[in-house]
Each structure stands twice: as C-alpha cells, then as structure tokens.
Write a structure and sequence with these properties.
mainly alpha; Death Domain, Fas
Length: 179
C-alpha cells in the first residue's frame, strides 16, 4: 500500500480534535522543511505554520498538499510523525492494518513451534511404537521363515530394549532438570 493511500486513510484520524497539538505540527512542518530532499519550501512551511489559521485547517491543507506531491513526500511525513509523535504514529489506523496478520497466511514461526513442541521423548516413544509394530508384524507373519530360536530372541528383545531406553530417558530427564 502506497504512503499516499495510507495518508488518505489516516487523514480523518490525524485531523480529529486533540490528536496533534500545535507544537507537534510545527515540529513536523519544520522537519519536512529541513529534510533532504526538501519536502516543503520555506514559503509552504510558513503557510502551514501560520498561527492565524486554525490547527485543523493547517493540518488538513498540509496532508492534502503532501498527497498531491507524491509518495516520497507522504513517506517523509510518516517519518516525521514517528520521530515527533511516536505514540500517535503507532495508533494510526493504517499501522494497525499493517500489523494485523492475514488470517489465511500461515505463521511459520508458530507452525514450527507447533510441530516441534513435543520434544525428543515423544519422538522416541513414537519411533519405539513403530519399530515394535514392525517387529511384531515381521515375527507373526507366517510367510517369513524365521528360525524358532530367533523368534524367541526377537520376542524378548522389547523387554531388553525397554530397560536401556528407560535408563537413557531417565538420564535425559535428570539432565534437563539440572539445567
């Protein structure tokens, strides 16, 4: 979204009563007058700082003038607003739209956390279940020609493996609790 469109969207918010005081508007006009490249000429700056005109009128005229000048001028206005009135800058309606995430967009950081929040113990448990199921399927399948002794060894292997896995998991949990 271009800065001119954003400024048009924020115009009512900025010109409403008591959003910007006279000192802040003067600082913004002076900054736009002094910035390189010069956004406002000296005559334009005097016009927008004229205390005889109401603040609402001067601010409205300034915003319309910047929109006519182009996107670069509007961008410099936002920069000056951020420097001189940061809280107001953060409360702008266009900023809130930019901060609001698209509901259809996937937040990769959140998605990554959601996929990895279970930890290594969960992975080991799932892997053990899958390996046990595969081993069970292999041993109980009548097509495979496994010798009887091998079948007995494979039948007791989950008990043997379970002891070692339990020790490893307990060591891992103790290590985490110390950290």
């Amino acid at each position: 979204q271009s800065y001119c469109h954003r400024l048009q969207h924020d115009m009512y918010f900025l010109t409403s009563t008591s959003r910007l005081n006279e000192q802040v508007v003067d600082k913004i006009v002076l900054q736009l007058n002094r910035v390189y490249p010069q956004i406002l000429t000296n005559e334009e700056a005097e016009k927008f700082r004229n205390p005889k005109a109401s603040l609402h009128t001067r601010l409205s005229d300034l915003l319309k003038h910047l929109q006519k000048k182009g996107d670069r001028h509007c961008q410099e206005f936002y920069r000056a607003l951020q420097i001189n009135a940061e809280q107001l800058f953060n409360d702008l309606p266009s900023r809130k739209i930019l901060k609001t995430p698209d509901p259809t967009e996937i937040d990769t950081d959140k998605e990554q956390y959601m996929l990895n929040d279970r930890g290594p113990v969960f992975f080991l448990a799932c892997f053990s279940v899958a390996a046990g199921f595969a081993l069970f399927w292999y041993c109980c399948n009548s097509d495979t020609k496994v010798i009887g002794r091998a079948r007995r060894i494979l039948g007791f292997s989950p008990i043997i493996i379970r002891r070692h896995v339990r020790k490893i998991c307990m060591l891992y949990l103790e290590d985490i609790s110390r950290s």
